[in-house]
Amino acid sequence: MLPYSTQTRKPRDVAKGRIDGRSAEIQRLIGRSLRAVVDLEKLGPRTIWIDCDVLQADGGTRTAAITGASLALAVACRKLARKKKLGAPPVQKLVAAVSAGVLDGNEILDLNYEEDKLVAVDFNLVATEDGEFVEVQGSGEESTFSQSQLDEMLVLGRKGIAELIAAQRAVLARLMVTPPES
Question: Which long-range contacts (CB under 8 A, 24 or more apart) does 108-111 make?
């Protein structure tokens, strides 16, 4: 997360000489989410670094990073394939993520900072374009939650992910008509 991405200024990790626990956890989550949809055999002996700078920390910081990173990876791999550095793009499917929660007894999607601070239940969902789960994280912050609340957050989450995947597909479609870079 960049300085000024949070309410109070957050120092850059590099200034401390190490990444903080939250940054490390978010990095691992993004990595797991992307590896789940990549054919590592097609990728071959390559490492792809995706830098996700958080400009405004909100309730869905990590989920926005996953959704953006998935699109960036798909674009990068298509470019490598066009340049004949890969036989075929190794990205098997797109992945997106959303945050959800229970606030004042109501299930909500795409929490902002204030909502994220106040929710009784915090829930993150990572899924592929065909609806398969990559990761589900949910916890009662100061309470428990029912099966019906979980089910409703899953319904909301799947709907949100479908909308994000549609937006990713629209970007990829626009990029396909753009002349290849030289």
Answer: 108/156, 109/156, 109/157, 109/159, 109/160, 110/59, 110/60, 110/160, 111/58, 111/59, 111/60
Cβ-contact 65, 31 below 8 angstroms? no
pTM, entire model: 0.84
User: Which superfamily is assigned to 13-177 in CATH?
Assistant: GHMP Kinase, N-terminal domain (3.30.230.70)
pLDDT in tens, 68-99: 999 999 999 999 998 999 988 899 999 999 99
- Confidence (pLDDT) at 179: 46
Q: Are 97 and 124 in contact (CB under 8 A)?
A: yes
**What three-state secondary structure class fits 169?**
helix
